[in-house]
């Protein structure tokens, strides 16, 4: 997954090694189980587990996800798909 730089997930200065800025996304069946293993290993989260619903056009797609840094400084997103749901109806005057 490639992201345009927006200062949101930047892990350090944009300098060599240029592996920074790469986000590796891994889908798993159970994010909570993987998060428990991360915590037991004493590894820190870059972003702790959270639920995110993104616009997929005619609906919203949900994921439970967290981010960690690998030993080389690459950002790894671990995600579990939560399915789809309808977008909220907008009340326009």
Compose a concise summary of this entry.
With 93 residues, this protein is mainly β.
Number of E strands: 4
Helical content class: 10-25%
Averaged pLDDT, please? 85
Radius of gyration of CA atoms, rounded to a whole number: 16 Å
CATH superfamily grouping of the domain at 23-85 = 2,3-Dihydroxybiphenyl 1,2-Dioxygenase, domain 1
Give me the oligomer status: single chain
Shape: globular
Q: From the helix content, strand content and strand pairing, which structural class follows?
A: mainly beta
Biggest sheet architecture: 4 strands, mixed
CATH class of the domain at 23-85: Alpha Beta
SSE string: EHEEE
Q: Roughly what fraction of the amino acids lie in strands? A: 35-45%
State the end-to-end distance.
39 Å
**Could you list the spans in which at least 5 consecutive residues all have pLDDT below 50?**
none
- The largest sheet has its strands arranged as 1-4-3-2
Description:
This protein has 93 residues and is mainly beta. The chain has a domain at 23-85: 2,3-Dihydroxybiphenyl 1,2-Dioxygenase, domain 1. The chain is 11% helix and 38% strand. It has one helix at 31-40; strands spanning 23-27, 47-55, 60-69, 75-85. Strands 1-4-3-2 form a 4-stranded mixed beta sheet, covered by helices on one side. The protein is globular and about 50 Å long.
